[in-house]
Amino acid sequence: MNGEGPSLLSRNLWAKRTTRFLAILERALQLLATEPELARAEVELNRQFYFLLLRATRELYPTEEIAPAQECYNQPDPDDETRASREGKRPDFQWIYLDHYESDPFRSSKQFVVECKRLGRPLRSDRILNALYVEKGVWRFLTPDSGYAKGFPSAAMVGYWQDMAADDILREVNEAASKRGVSRLNLSREGWRSGGVSKLDHRCERPFPVSPLLIYHLWADLRRMPNG
Known about the structure:
This protein is α/β, with parallel strands linked by helices. The chain is built from four helices and seven strands.
């Protein structure tokens, strides 16, 4: 099912939707930073974040009809003739919408994928958070086995920044990326936002027809977050 590539209208819709989803993510992370209590476990923190995504959506875009889905399986890709292993993987969040400008009906379902990870000091000798941000986060967008955001030009990651200096976290994340042959994350011109949401991005090569992938990173300063 090979298509001719997205039309200009389809690309513009993707860009518009991406801008909207990133704004919702940022606002929800701002709300998360003001929560009186933060969950300890990552899975529970994601659940807490989910409800704030809904609140942020209503606040920013009152007429929005597309809701984020938590832990929804990767959707089938029309290039796969049979069920692929990636269809058994579940990114933390996805927004799924129909692109009516897409000429190929099999490619009309578009998914903006978000993966979330904690950042900071190691929890244990086998739980090196800043390395896991790459190994269990970024890497899932780049390998066929996980295939997050396969077929799409951009995606996002959320970092729950629980302790450490930001520069030290970024250095360790980039060291882990380098070991995997992944490009470095770049801090935005806005710099670090203490108490807020910092933005980074990078472009990653991957063995999919749509490559490179642009990953937007939003790191929320949650340094009052419980360890463990």
